[in-house]
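Problem statement: downstream parser choked on a complex file, so we are re-checking the raw output for the adenosine-5'-diphosphate run. The parser issue turned out to be on our end (a line-ending mismatch), but while we're here, posting the original submission so the record is complete.
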Amino acid sequence: MAVKTVKDIDLKGKRVLVRADFNVPLKEGVITDDTRIKAALPTLQYILEQEGASLVLMSHLGRPKGEPKPEFSLAPIAQRLSELLDRPVEMASDCVGSETAQMAEKLKPGEVLLLENVRYHAGETKNDAEFAKQLAKNGDVFVNDAFGTAHRAHASTEGVAHVLPSAAGFLIDKEVRFFEHLLSNPEKPFVAVIGGAKVSSKIGVLETLLDKCTTLVIGGAMSYTFLKAQGHSIGKSMIENDYIDTAKSLLERAQKAGIQVLLPLDHMAGREFDENTDPVYVDEVDLPDELIGLDIGMKTLEALKESISEANSLVWNGPMGVFEFENFAKGTLEVAEMVAACKGTTVVGGGDSVAAVNKFGFAEKIDHVSTGGGASLEFLEGKKLPGIAVLEK
Ligand code: ADP
Ligand code: MG
């Protein structure tokens, strides 16, 4: 399903109400990473280039739980946006109410108004229809570009779209195009690389991808539940005993469908789950009793290399090891490098996987690095995201 985008609706002379994702990390009121603000710029600049258009921006920040809390104010974002857009950004002290509506009403072409945190009101996360109408009073048309919250039906993402003519911004449009392409008609070989912490949190993703991929790579902590299901010894590695049967049946399904499954062949392990634990190389699938598997080993990496380099489509979710620990980052780092070198269409989704790709500096070489952790997982589970479904053509 394609979505309507900013290019499909008439913005001339309109006050354009934009839901962006300005939920940036702050430390003592100072923005420590403005990636999300920068990511919104193409859509904002496009709107400002339309004759007579003005901008009314809204976002959430943190979890103020339905009441005004100064530490969650969007004021620092107004300042940063003003620098990035190279024009003044006025700040409204609330996102609804007559004073705010008047400020929005008075906007001249090219002017920008930022509304205060939408989560200062309980109606936001409840998707309260009356609250959505109040928000809608601040614009003539609605543009949603907050992919990170698109999996939640909130007033500022889903609710307002029922009140105003609505479209997606460039960020959401790109997310939808890449994920839908992967899930509807991926070019084969289609390699799915799944890792991370838990089988339980990735069952939906594994099930959806099992129906579509030609090779399934399983790494990270969750691979130990799969190895145990195959009868291997996994030492003190992370295990979800309740999911061994699930892992067995997923492996059987893959085998019946003729899907190649690649599990760890060797490991980098440690005695403690600790940054400073001595790394021990284990040259086989089975781990001795006293060790915790913390990363995939070089034999495994060698085995993945061919599949990844020959993929015509690839999706990666979930780190291959505890990449936060320097001694156990190699598996994730090298997979990131292989994905970056892959000539096929490459997509990375998931909060920690994306953090790893950014940390190691490969984001530029990957076709699509998703901006939404939870939202990208739900997309990969084949779910319809409410904030996007409402924008479908
Ligand atoms: P994503 O956010 O990309 O979906 P997850 O949240 O599922 O990924 O998993 C990420 C976490 O998994 C990381 O914090 C990483 O340290 C952890 N992890 C990966 N491999 C292991 C392992 N072998 N043992 C313990 N934790 C692991
Ligand atoms: Mg995560």
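For whoever reads this later: The mean pLDDT is 96.
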